[in-house]
Specification:
The chain is an alpha+beta fold. The protein contains three helices and eleven strands. It has a single domain, classed as Aminopeptidase (3-Layer(aba) Sandwich). Strands 1, 2, 3, 4, 5, 6, 7, 8, 9, 10 and 11 form an eleven-stranded mixed β-sheet that branches.
Length: about 180
């Protein structure tokens, strides 16, 4: 059984199959996209992911998107979701549709799971173009700083975007409890 699969030019790599070179290249790309020091040299922000989607140009990683498969609650209703995080394109490759291609692949992957929704925290236009809708639910999550849990937050989600994957409807009035950190 192959540990890596390719969707066109997009590689899907389970977290535990990342090589040390890929880990370093992803960390460098995230520094390029989000600014040096934001990820402290890691290939993830607050928590490791389940699956990475990457695009390469030769040996260089020029596009990255992380997916998590998690459970959460909307009030008392427990549900599964795919969290989308750390979307990045190398600065000299932006505007070529790389993030849009990765997003389509991520949505296709998510449709093949038991997840009810895809969830992200962001505002880029490519998300609404792909069917994500902005919500401002009350949000409960674990605050993390430098990979340490520091508090439990109760706040309004300002950049929450949700895409239904099936027949479940999003309850915009419910409190969203992520049962852990924002990705």
């Amino acid at each position: 059984m192959a540990t890596r699969m390719t969707i066109g030019t997009i590689e899907c790599i389970p977290e535990w199959h990342l090589t040390s070179l890929d880990e370093r290249n992803i960390a460098d790309l995230l520094d390029d996209a989000f600014g040096a020091g934001v990820f402290n040299g890691r290939s993830f922000h607050k928590q490791r992911h389940h699956l990475r989607l990457i695009v390469r140009d030769g040996h260089h990683i020029i596009g990255h998107m992380a997916l998590q498969y998690r459970a959460a609650r909307l009030n008392d209703r427990l549900f599964d979701y795919i969290g989308l995080a750390e979307v990045a394109t190398a600065s000299n490759y932006r505007g070529q549709g790389i993030a849009s291609q990765m997003l389509r692949a991520a949505i296709d992957k998510a449709h093949g799971t038991l997840a009810d929704f895809m969830i992200l925290f962001g505002t880029a236009k490519l998300y609404s173009a792909a069917g994500f809708v902005a919500y401002s639910n009350k949000l409960v999550s674990a605050e993390m700083s430098d990979c340490r849990t520091t508090a439990i937050l109760n706040e309004t989600a300002e950049t929450l975007m949700v895409k239904p994957l099936g027949v479940q409807e999003w309850d915009s009035e419910a409190t969203l409890d992520l049962l852990g950190p924002v990705f």
